[in-house]
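Worked problem 6 (solution included).
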Amino acid sequence: MNPIDIVVLSYLRHEFTLKCIQHIAERTKRPYRLILVVNGTDFHESAVVGQYRALQEKGIIDHLLLVGDNYGVHAGKNVALPLVHSNPYYIDMDNDILVPDLEPDWTVQLEDLMNKYPNFGSISLRPQVLIGRSGTEFDVPDEVVKFSHSGAHGRIMRTDVVKKAGGWRQTWDALRNNEDRWIAEQLKNQGYDTGYAKNLRTWHCFGAETHDEWGYPKEQKPEDHGHVTRWPPVNTYSKIEDYDPKTWIKK
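Solution. The predicted structure is:
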């Protein structure tokens, strides 16, 4: 089986990034290449950079891209795109996502869905909660549920379609989900839908494990890390211990 490229974009929250990478390494049974983009890297944080380099030396990280400034989500994803070679698909992921431990492999199951539903340009793993939604949208018989956009919760995408669109926009925008809505629009312009896998779950790290801070410095405003001020108190929505640690389905 050919390797599939997995792009992880990180900005601060190194603890979450390392946990995300650990889950990918332990739970991805098929060959893959991990491309890690670290936005806003403080190169004086030698311990953090050293941890990433150690993972690269072990072959867990294939490409380590350290960006000195935080140019935003769009630019970070575009930095990685020239290194993406897996066809017909690759996976785009935020750094606070914990993938499931499934058989067959979670990437294989996502790939099977893309093959089965060729009208979709991207399909994401289903997180334990979608902010601002009740979850009733998934009360349908469909394997893939169509949404206006799919988030980077482990999002498989059609490589050629993303590259034909030119990737993401070049300008920074702190509006929540702006980058997801942008790429969804580019996929739709080429005739593709976007959505979520109904039965493939993932864990989006917010809640008790974030110490109510989301892992960002307290002095930062939501706009500084890409979220508007009306971001809700997500720590009240879910507790990780209430979910199966392998499948991320609620117990």
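Discussion: The chain has a mean pLDDT of 85.
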